[in-house]
Design a protein that fits this description.
With about 160 residues, this protein is of the alpha+beta class. It is about 45% helix and about 25% strand. Helix 3 crosses helix 4. The strands form 2 sheets. A 3-stranded mixed β-sheet has the order 3-4-5, covered by helices on one side. The chain has a two-stranded antiparallel sheet with strand order 1-2. The chain starts with a helix and ends in a 14-residue tail after the last helix. It is elongated, with a radius of gyration of 29 Å.
C-alpha cells in the first residue's frame, strides 16, 4: 500500500528538518542554554560569602575557608573528636551543618549547645558575618576513646576510677 500524499509530505518535511546544518544549530543552542543555566546557578549560590563591605569594595570569604575555621573552633570544644562543616544558603542566610564525632563520655545536649554558641559567637565576632542562619549538629560517630583517655593511656574509666586489668 503506497503512502498517502499527507504522510509523504510529512516525511519530506522531516528529512529537510534533520539536515546536518540544522542539527549543528540545535546542538549549539542546547550547549549555550546549558552554559547559561550553569552560570545562573553559580550566581545564585556563589562559593564566596561577603563578610562586610569596605570603603572601596568588600571582604569575601570562601566556603572552604569558613568551613576550615568552623572545624578548628569545633574541635577545641571538649567532647568533639572531629568536625566537618557543610555550608548552604537559604535566601540571604548562611546555614551550617556540623558533622561531629562525639567522644563517648560527654553529654550530647551539653556539647551541642556549647558548639552552637561558640561557633555562632566566633563566626560573628571574628569574621564579621552577621547573616548566619541555622546551625545543625549531626553526630556521625561516637569516638571510643576520648582525648583524656588517650592522655592517661586508658588508665581511668568514665567515672575517673582506675581501671583494673
Amino acid at each position: 500500500m503506497p503512502p498517502s500524499a499527507t504522510s509523504q509530505s510529512l516525511i519530506e518535511s522531516l528529512n529537510q528538518l534533520f539536515t546536518v546544518p540544522n542539527l549543528l544549530i540545535a546542538a549549539t543552542a542546547l550547549i549555550l542554554l546549558l552554559w547559561l543555566w550553569a552560570r545562573i546557578r553559580a550566581l545564585q549560590n556563589p562559593a564566596t560569602i561577603t563578610a562586610f563591605a569596605t570603603q572601596n569594595g568588600a571582604v569575601l570569604i570562601t566556603h572552604g575557608a569558613l568551613a576550615d575555621f568552623v572545624n578548628k573552633v569545633a574541635v577545641e570544644i571538649d567532647g568533639i573528636a572531629k568536625c566537618s562543616c557543610r555550608i548552604s544558603r537559604d535566601k540571604n542566610l548562611i546555614n551550617l551543618q556540623l558533622r561531629i564525632h562525639l567522644e563517648s563520655n560527654y553529654q550530647l545536649t551539653d556539647v551541642a549547645q556549647q558548639l552552637e554558641r561558640r561557633v555562632s559567637q566566633t563566626v560573628r565576632n571574628t569574621l564579621g558575618l552577621e547573616d548566619l542562619g541555622r546551625i545543625y549538629t549531626v553526630v556521625t560517630s561516637l569516638a571510643h576513646e576520648s582525648r583524656e583517655e588517650k592522655r592517661d593511656g586508658g588508665k581511668y574509666d568514665l567515672l575517673g576510677e582506675e581501671r583494673e586489668y
